[in-house]
Amino acid sequence: MSLQIKHLLGLKDVSREDITAILDSADHFAEVLNRDIKTVPTLRGKTVVNFFYENSTRTRISFEMAEKRLSASPLNFSTSGSSVSKGETLRDTIQNIEAMKIDMVVVRHGSAGVPKFLTECTDATIINAGDGYHEHPTQALLDMMTIRQRLGKLEGLKVAIVGDILHSRVARSNAWGMKTMGMDVTLCAPTTLLPQHTESLGVKVTTKLNDAISDADVVMLLRPQLERQTHGLFPSVREYRTYYGIDRDKMNLMRDDALIMHPGPINRGVELESEVADCERSVILDQVTNGVATRMAVLYLLGGGEQ
Ligand code: CP
Questions:
Q1: Is 128 a pocket residue for ligand 1 (Cβ < 6 Å)?
Q2: Would you tell me how many other CB atoms lie within 10 Å of the CB of residue 273?
Q3: Which of 27, 43, 90, 235 lies at a CB distance of 3.0 to 4.6 Å from 72, suitable for a disulfide?
Q4: Quick check: CB of 139 below 6 Å from ligand 1?
Q5: pLDDT for residue 301
Q6: What pTM, to 2 d.p., does this model score?
Q7: What is the pLDDT of residue 171?
Q8: Is the dihedral of CA 200, 240, 169, 228 positive or negative?
Q9: Does residue 158 form part of some domain?
Q10: C-alpha of residue 1 to centroid of ligand 1, in Å
Q11: Are residues 157 and 271 in the same domain?
Q12: Contact 105, 118 (CB under 8 A)
């Protein structure tokens, strides 16, 4: 059985069956990645363009690694050094690249909706690697893979997502995906960093850190995205850290077995102290490891592979 979706634009409209299929396939690829020979011939002959209009470390490298592990041919596009600097439009840019015969596009862009726009001007399969404040679906999938790997299930688990929810595509994708998988999600931030109309996400919302974290199975921290904030949304970094940053004392308010997660990049000493980021309950580097297997699963299943 292949996926019901043709493109991966976000998790809002992805079914529980499709998310489960991706997570099961990612578990299989994680096992492949533990072998001596980590490459499989699955996507041999397919060309995947990594179309990045925004900076990235984890997402970009793990997509490229996933493509190489599946024997696809990756092509990397970035705006610096391209004809975007001469004023070429997004539509012209993608249509010129498509004219060279490509199969899939992995796109990151600062504007919400760009992945959807690309589906309207190319025939290639589109995978969203983060669009503005909108969604970052492969991050949420690798987060759920990591939780399922550690805790053995998703259904019924309590997750607290703490930080700059307003600007976070990671929070949005996780809220949609985790709700679909039957998880109990609480978003926690100062009022100025919470979006309006959170009721449409179907999650709980609080401004009180203790209410969010005290009985959570998973606590996911998000950095304040200062590059997306047009004016001061909290009085100072020091005040943010005092109320929402997790240090050893605040970690002691959590359950002893709660997992600590972060999508990266971490602002050490702001949302997370190093002693917490690097402690035995942190699965932050597991998330990065699982990013390759998750992206292999998405590329494989959208590239025509069967479960
Ligand atoms: N988590 C994440 O998207 O990291 P990058 O911005 O480094 O890709």
A1: no
A2: 19
A3: 43
A4: yes
A5: 97
A6: 0.96
A7: 97
A8: positive
A9: yes
A10: 30
A11: yes
A12: yes
